[in-house]
Each structure stands twice: as structure tokens, then as C-alpha cells.
């Protein structure tokens, strides 16, 4: 009779620990997916700089191709592209239909070289507009 009680007590403790462990994992997994939207916007901002760099729009500061690309992004996105030379703003482009920076959720940054000698810093801020 004593062995049955100890066995039942072991089962109850194991069950309790399993429930606590499962609850802990569930809440941690749930919180890790809450920033998925911000992560996606960050990747989109970084990809924007990469695409503009690869088609040489950043190096040539081509207004037409930069605005064409920014305006081709989905309409729910607002985008602001800024290019810095040292600490001063050299170029700024805001997607059409976006008036001001909202709550910036995605931020991409990239250093690039133009004219084989000048080093610039590009920054894309992305938010829902």
C-alpha cells in the first residue's frame, strides 16, 4: 500500500512539472512571433537598399529609378530613403503619397561606394502608411 502512494505522488509531481514546463514554452514561443511583422519590414528595408545598390541607382543618385522603385513597393508601405555623406544628408527620397515618417517599424542601413572613391551611407526607413 505504501508503494502505490509514492508511485502516485511521483506521477502527480511529474505531471505538474510537465504542465509548468509546457506553459513556459508556450508563452515564450507566443512572444517570439509577436515581432514577426517588424522583422519582415526590416528585411524589406534592407532588401530595398540591396536592390537599389545592385541596379546602380544609389551610386548615380538616379531620381527616376529610385522613385520608380520606391513607388513600386506595396501601397501600404511608406518608405524614406536617405543617403549620407559623413554626417550630412546628401539625398532624400520619400515615396509618393507618404507625407511624414510614421511609427518606423523597419530600418535598413548599408554602406556603399560611388564614383570609385566616395563612401556613402544609405538608410531606408519603412512604416505602414
Question: How would you describe what is shown here?
Answer:
The protein is of the alpha+beta class and 129 residues long. It folds into two domains: 1-32; 36-128. 50% of the residues lie in helices and 28% in strands. It contains four helices and four strands. Strands 2-1-4-3 form a four-stranded antiparallel beta sheet. A hairpin with a 3-residue loop joins strand 3 and strand 4. The chain is elongated. The model has no long low-confidence stretch (mean pLDDT 84).
Q: How much is the radius of gyration in Å?
A: 25 Å
User: What structural category do the secondary elements indicate?
Assistant: alpha+beta
Question: How many distinct beta strands?
Answer: 4
Elements, N to C (H/E): HHHHEEEE
What is the tally of helical segments? 4
Oligomer: single chain
Output mean pLDDT.
Answer: 84
Query: Biggest sheet, in brief?
Result: 4 strands, antiparallel
Please, how many domains?
2
For the record, give the distance between the C-alpha atoms at the N and C termini, rounded to a whole number: 70 Å
| Strand order of the biggest β-sheet | 2-1-4-3
Tell me the strand percentage band. Answer: 25-35%
